Amino acid sequence: MPTVENMWSFPKILLILVLMKSCTAAPATSGVPAVIDETDPELIGGYVEGDMIMNEGKNGWIDETLRWPNRIVYYYINSDFDQEHRNLILRGIKTLQANSCLLFKEATRDQPYYINVTSDGVGCSSEMGFRKGIQRLNLDKSQPGCFRPGTIMHEFLHALGFLHQQSTWNRDEYVHINVENIIEDTIPNFGKYSKDKVDNFGEEYDYGSIMHYKSDAFSKNGKPTIVPLIAGYEKLIGNRVALTRVETDPELTAGYTEGDMILNDDRNGMINETYRWPNHIVYYFINSYIDQEHRNHILRGIRILEANSCLTFKEATSDQPYYVNVTSEPGGCYSYVGYRNRVQQLNLQNYALDTGCFRLGTIVHEFLHALGFYHQQSTWNRDEYVRIDEENIQDGMEHNFNKYDKETVDNFDEEYDFGSVMHYNSKAFSKNDKMTIVPLVEGVEEFMGQRLRMSDADINKLNTMYRCPRKV
Ligand SMILES: *[C@@H]1O[C@H](CO)[C@@H](O)[C@H](O)[C@H]1NC(C)=O
Ligand SMILES: *[C@@H]1O[C@H](CO)[C@@H](O)[C@H](O)[C@H]1NC(C)=O
Ligand SMILES: *[C@@H]1O[C@H](CO)[C@@H](O)[C@H](O)[C@H]1NC(C)=O
């Protein structure tokens, strides 16, 4: 089911963002973005390059002082936005959040630095990078073009430290700038930055980036100002609909090392609706001894689930009768399966961020248990896809390889998913470093046990289980 969010999954620019913020990178799917063509309010602000407000000196991507500290981006959306515009802004923010390790937080009164999202300026514009103070990002309400999802993200990506794609140091190898077609006083918008200022983070020049200008940007005569040197890219450049995606994932490795312990006090599957959270609301409580850094990482995991479904996660108040009690005790990472109509524990043993129980994928994995999912390899038809090698399993751990019958678990019309964030790796609970789960299909072993992202099928199943409305 192509939801808006998963249509935007793992764009190249966000892979760059991931690299820039030293997150764990996500694997990719393929797809070609569509093109939108209309007059562009990004270009009318009159700032450097139209929508970018540059402060003292030139600021490149490389300068780390222009990155948001602790991967947390604070924002304030002015009250002159109505609910509809506000929701569109939040949706853009959620998409960026779901595709990176950044956490966006609404600024409180005493927050010294944040993005002030305003509507009283001209067009759509943003200050470049982290400015250590209150920095403006303007989305003009009277300009529908500013509220294209891609444009909202485009402006936030400026605030996160990205210049335009065609400003990069090696752009002349990919595009030709037709100076004779450019409105004279906008020629400075086509400047480029040197290699010591901007970095492509190992990515190819990206014609389909949402940070690329359209081919007729600032044209005085309707003729192209930016001509791709490779035929066929004219229509791609300047897209503000979908983010571009990477075709290969450089960091996709199975890294599952911890025993994932599920407390099955009784056997409950996904089909029985008693085990689904009522009203699409999941209450949670993060114990106060969990430090701010780890708390934020748990919240990042929660935001990924929110952005990819119709579920809302709410912090439990003291009178809330049922909620997920997030603890951080020794003993690994584990959760009850499904909604229990009482306080139910979800444990994430303390690890450094992005390791062990505090890998984002593992946090998501444990919450997916709490939402009603067993492991992928527990499903009724798994024997058509994998062989369980009993002789390699540690003694006493065989129960982890149980499967559930068709009446208990449902695959929600999805194929068996070797790349599910709910799949064990092939050597889970192995006593001799040999495979305990042998895939019957070639070439999937490296995906098994990945904890980098929810797969498309994971997202679809979650949305089907909770009957989320289709977004597209
Ligand atoms: C945001 O910027 C606008 C326009 O400059 C200003 O009027 C407003 O007070 C600012 N709000 C906050 C909360 O910073
Ligand atoms: C669902 O689970 C509840 C609680 O265990 C049980 O009482 C009920 O009979 C189950 N329903 C079905 C259809 O199995
Ligand atoms: C959460 O669970 C832990 C461990 O069972 C328990 O000590 C703690 O009191 C619980 N906290 C809340 C708020 O439910």
From TrEMBL:
Disulfide bond entries: C124-C146
Keyword Hydrolase on entry: yes
EC number: 3.4.24.-
Keywords: Disulfide bond, Hydrolase, Metal-binding, Metalloprotease, Protease, Signal, Zinc
Annotated catalytic residues: E155, E366
Cited Gene3D superfamilies: Collagenase (Catalytic Domain)
PROSITE patterns: ASTACIN (PS51864)
Signal peptide bounds: 1-25
Positions of the Peptidase M12A domain: 59-272, 268-469
Cofactor dependence: Zn(2+)
One BP annotation, GO: proteolysis
Matching InterPro entries: Astacin-like_dom, MetalloPept_cat_dom_sf, Peptidase_M12A, Peptidase_Metallo
Metal-binding recorded as keyword: yes
GO molecular function: metalloendopeptidase activity; zinc ion binding
Binding site for Zn(2+): H154, H158, H164, H365, H369, H375
Pfam families: Astacin
Co-factor remark: Binds 1 zinc ion per subunit.
CDD domains per UniProt: ZnMc_astacin_like
PANTHER family, alphabetized: DISCOIDIN, CUB, EGF, LAMININ , AND ZINC METALLOPROTEASE DOMAIN CONTAINING, MEPRIN A SUBUNIT BETA
Name of this protein: Metalloendopeptidase
